[in-house]
Amino acid sequence: MAYRGPRTEYGQQQQQPGGGAQWRGGGGRPPAPPRTALKGKQPGSTLRKPDWDRIQLPPFQKNFYREHEATANRSEEEIEQHRKQHEITLQGRDIPRPILTFSEGCFPDYCMKMIEAQNYSDPTAIQCQGWPIALSGRDMVGIAQTGSGKTLAYILPAMVHITHQPYIQRGEGPVALVLAPTRELAQQIQQVASDFGRASRIRNTCVFGGAPKGSQLRDLERGVEICIATPGRLIDFLEAGKVNLRRCTYLVLDEADRMLDMGFEPQIRKIVEQIRPDCQTLMWSATWPKEVRALAEDFLTDYIQVNIGALQLCANHRILQIVDVCQESDKENKLLELHKEIINEQDNKTLIFAETKKKVDELTRRMRRNGWPSICIHGDKSQSERDWVLNEFRSGRSPILVATDVAARGLDVDDIRFVINYDYPHCSEDYIHRIGRTARSNKTGTAYTFFTPNNMKQAKELISVLKEANQVVNPKLYEIADMARSSSFTGRNTRRYRTPGQPLNTGENTDRPRYGNALQRSNNGGFRAQNNTFGRNPSQNGFVSRPQQTSPFNRNLTQNAYKPAQPSYGTATPTQNGYNKPAQNGYTNAPPQNGYKSTQNSYSGTNAYSKPAQNGYGGSPSQTGFAKQAGGFKRQAGNQVAPYLANGYRGSHQAATQQCYVGAPPPMFPGMGAYGQYGQGGATPYMPPNLYYQVPA
C-alpha cells in the first residue's frame, strides 16, 4: 500500500521522497534539513557545554600565598619606587605587594634548587608582581614584552597549585592547562615544566598538531597534571572523547593576542566551556588590543591587570636596531656582507627571518653553497625535522637559522645575538616579536632590518617603534614615510619606486606611460610625485621615450644616456634608416673606431651596414655584388673592422692602405668564390655573413 503523506494547509497530500504517495512508491527517506552552517565542519561543533549549574563540583583550594616577612616590612615608598623603576602599572583591587627576591616567593625547596641551578639572579619585573597574584588564586592579565620571563611567571605557581590538589587518577584530565598558539612555543613551555617538575614528580604532556596522536593519547589516558596544548589538536581530542577537563582548575592562555590573530578564538571558547567556571585563569599577552580585552572580560573574574612598560606596541630597549633602506635586488649581497662581519664575533648565533617558505629554502641553499653553516625551519617541515633543527641551533652546531614567522613567537634560545629581518613583516607587531628573540633574560642583542620601498606602508609604524626605543632613525626612512603619505603613491606603483638618493640605471624607465603619475628626481636625491602623463622630452622624469632608448651595446658610464629628442623612425631621409647621422646608414664609419665610441651614443663598428652609394659589399660605386678579380677577393686589414667579423668591409677609398691575410677556403664551402674589395695581398675565401672566425695567419 502507498504511504500517506502529511497534509498541507490546502488539504493536499505532500509527496514523500521516493514516490511515497504513489502506488508501490516504497516510501523513501525524509528530506535533509537545510544547511545553516558554513561549508565544512566547524571546530568543536559536536561539543556540548556542560550544565555547570546542575553539576556538583568538588571544592578546591587556590590561595597559597604567604607573604614573606621582608615583603611585609617593606615601606610603601620603596614599593612605589620599585614599580616606577620597572614601569609596572596595575589595575584592580587588593593587589599584593611585589617580591624582590626568589626567597620571598616562598616556593618549595625543589623549585628553589632548580632556580639556583639555572643561575637566575633576580626575578624579572613581571615575575616580581605576577607571582604574588598567581599564588593568591586571583585571575590576572599580564602584559609584557617578549623575553620578560612570562613562562616562569605562571609555571612556578602552577607547580604550587598542583601540589595542593588531590592526586590524578588514570583517565582523569589535567589539573593545569596551558594553551599556546604554536607547537614550538608549546614544546618550550613543556621543557620548562619538565625542568621544574622533575623533582616533584609532576607529569606533563604536550599536545599539538603535526605529530602522531598515539603517544599524546597514551599520556592523557595515564593521567598528567599539566597539559600544554595548541587549540586545534586539543579540540580534536575533546570531540573524540579522549580527554576531559573536569579536573582542570588552573588555566593559562599564553600569547593570547597571537592566538586571536591566528583565528583560534572559536576553539578557545569551546575549550573554556568544558572547564569549570570557578577555575583560576591567567592570560598573558605582549599587546593589549580590544580583542584581547573582550576575551579577558568573558573569561576572567575580578582580575588584576599587570602591565610592564607602555600599553602600546614597544620593543625591548636592550636591542640595538639597525635599519638598512635598500632595493630588493641588493638584499642578498648585503646579507652576505653582513655575515662576513658577524662571523668574526665571539657570539654569532643568528636568526634570519624571510617572508615565504620558498625564500627560506633559497636563502639556506645559497648560504650553505657559500660555506655558511645554516639550517632552516618553516611550516612544511615535519615535527622530527623541526626538533632536529632547533636542537642543532641551540647547541651551536649550526649557528645560523633561517625561518618564517612560525618561529617568531616563543622561540626561547637565550644566546641569540643577532636577528636579521631579510623581509620586513606585514605589521610592526610581528617585527617586535621577531627582534624579541634576542636580548632575552636581561641580555643585549642586535637586530638588522632590510627595508625596501615595497614596505613603505609600514615606515611610519617602524619609525614610532624606533623612537620609542631611543634608536637612531635612518634619514631615508623618513623620506619613504613621506612618500607613503602622498596620495599618489598607492597600489601596485609602489614596487617601482626607488630608494631615496639611489641613481637610476642607464636607459631605465621608472614608470610606464599607462600610469598617470611619474617620478621625478628632486634636488636632495629623493623623489617626488609629478602629476603629469608620460613625458615626451627625454630629459624629463628620469627616463627616455622608447625610440630614443640607448643601445644595449653602450656600456660607457661617462656618456649621458638621456639624449635630446632625435628624429623618430620614418622622419629622416631614405638613406638614414632611422638613425641620427644623415650620411651614415646606421653606424658611424670613422676608420679608427673599432667597437665602442667615447663621444657618441651609438655603436661605431661597420658591421652589416654599407655606404648609401654602395649596393651590397664594399668596393667602387659600380660594383653591384662581388668584385671581379682573378685571384679572388681581398679582405681588408683585420685592425680596420670589428674583430673576426666576416662581412664588415670598408669602401674602395681605403684600398691603398689595407693589408689582407690569405686563408685557405673553409672545408664547409669548397670551391666557392671570395668577396671583398681591391687591395694588397692574396685572396680570402668566401665566408657566410655574420660568421665570426679566427683569421688564419
TrEMBL record:
Comp. bias regions, Gly residues: 17-29
Signal sequence range: none
Residue span, Helicase C-terminal domain: 334-481
Region described as Disordered: 1-53, 490-631
Catalytic class of the enzyme: hydrolase
Ranges where the Helicase ATP-binding domain occurs: 131-306
Gene3D superfamilies found in the cross-reference section: P-loop containing nucleotide triphosphate hydrolases
EC number: 3.6.4.13
Catalytic activity, as annotated: ATP + H2O = ADP + phosphate + H(+)
UniProt biased composition (Polar residues): 519-561, 568-613
InterPro entries for the chain: DEAD/DEAH_box_helicase_dom (IPR011545), Helicase_ATP-bd (IPR014001), Helicase_C-like (IPR001650), P-loop_NTPase (IPR027417), RNA-helicase_DEAD-box_CS (IPR000629), RNA_helicase_DEAD_Q_motif (IPR014014)
Domain DEAD-box RNA helicase Q span(s) in chain numbering: 100-128
A UniProt-annotated Pfam family: Helicase_C
Lineage: superkingdom: Eukaryota
Molecular function terms from GO: ATP binding; hydrolase activity; nucleic acid binding; RNA helicase activity
Family to which the UniProt record says this protein belongs: Belongs to the DEAD box helicase family.
UniProt name for this protein: RNA helicase
Phylogenetic classification of the source organism: Eukaryota, Metazoa, Ecdysozoa, Arthropoda, Chelicerata
